[in-house]
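User: Predict the structure for this protein chain, please.
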Amino acid sequence: MIRTYQDLDYFEKHIVEILKEDYGRDQQSAVDIVNEYMDILQLLNDGHESANSFAEMFDDAYRSGTSGQAWMDNISNYLLENVTEIKSFLEFLETQNTPMTIRPDGVFVIKGKPYVAMYVGESHPTHTVRWGTFYVSLDLTDIQTMDYVTGDVISLEEWRRLEKERRNRADYN
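Assistant: Here is the predicted structure, written as structure tokens:
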């Protein structure tokens, strides 16, 4: 849906104004940018990010030619490339004829930086089963994860170390 300036909500109009004032965009170009990244804005706008942060992220993405859909694809691809354990999980699910689901699950600020939470799990006709939650930085430079035992957000390296320890304890018992 293509929206005009009048169709935008207050927060979106504020982003348009910042794009005009700080990034030299004309009004139509700024509205086009907000429309292009509307889905991402709805996903990520949970009150943690300022209009200035969105304007900067969207202007950078728009200048580089990254569409809204490509941005989400880039997040998923970055996750799959850097968390090889997901591929092993998928291979296991394929032996069970069970589809895997990977989907955005909100945005979180970790150490002052915005991350998209990515839900990874099994997909069944009536429900899904979470295998893991991974937090991918919007600039695609870092991945954090949730420790399923403590609920803490930890680095990928720490998660791998803990998983290895837990497997070793399970094998010993």
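Residues 40 and 72 are 8 Å apart (CA to CA).
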